[in-house]
Here is the input.
Amino acid sequence: QVQLVESGGGSAQAGGSLRVSCAASGRTFNINTMGWFRQAPGKEREFVAAIVWSDNRSYYGDSVKGRFTISRDNAKNAVYLLMNGLRPEDTAVYYCAVWTPGSGWYWGQGTQVTVSS
Here is the structure.
C-alpha cells in the first residue's frame, strides 16, 4: 500500500500562481510514476501532469502545457505541481496519484484549487 497526503492549493486570481504538494509513504520503493489529475464539478477526471521516477521524464495534459511544472524530491518521496498563469477553468479538485507495477494506481484525498476571474 501507498499512502498519499496532499497539501497546498487554495484560491488565487486569474494569472496568479499556486503550488500543490504530495508526499507518499508506505511501499514507496515500488513507485513507477507520480502525478496529478483534477476533476471539476460535473466533469470527468482529467490528467494534468506526471513524472516517471526512474528517469525524471515528465508529461503534461494539453490544457496545462507551458503553465504548470511538475517536480519531485526523491528523498522525501514527494511530488510538486507549480501552477502559473492560472485560469478560472483550472478550478477543480486536484488529486495526487501514484502508479506502481502490479498494484496500479493509488490516490490522494484531493485538494481544492479555486481560480477567480
The chain has a mean pLDDT of 95. The chain is about 0% helix and 60% strand. The CA atoms of residues 39 and 45 lie 4 Å apart.
